[in-house]
Write a structure and sequence with these properties.
The protein is an all-alpha fold. It is built from three helices and no strands. Helix content is 78%, strand content 0%.
């Protein structure tokens, strides 16, 4: 994939270095956010003796009810999924 940047008055090498650095920084932040969601999921899994995949299936089918904790766990599962993709894409693009 080739990323096209708008024309700049700065030399291409300077722009490229700055953009790569920014992408690496964002990749690092995405991995930290992913880690936070993974830790939240692990805490729920320990507390309820159920893995997140089983929880998601039961939650989405309505088996678990409407407890606020279930919604918190569901948000952690979804957050983990979203930030995993973001971290992977940013790692790949940042090189």
């Amino acid at each position: 994939m080739v990323l096209q940047l708008p024309k700049s008055d700065f030399p291409d090498s300077v722009v490229q270095d700055i953009v790569k650095s920014a992408l690496r920084d964002q990749a690092h932040l995405a991995r930290l956010r992913l880690e936070q969601f993974e830790n939240e999921c692990s805490a729920f899994e320990r507390k309820f003796s159920m893995n997140s995949a089983d929880f998601s299936r039961k939650f989405e089918s309505g088996e678990l009810g409407d407890s606020e904790e279930w919604f918190d766990w569901f948000a952690a599962v979804r957050g983990r999924e979203v930030w995993k993709v973001k971290a992977e894409v940013l790692d790949e693009v940042a090189g």
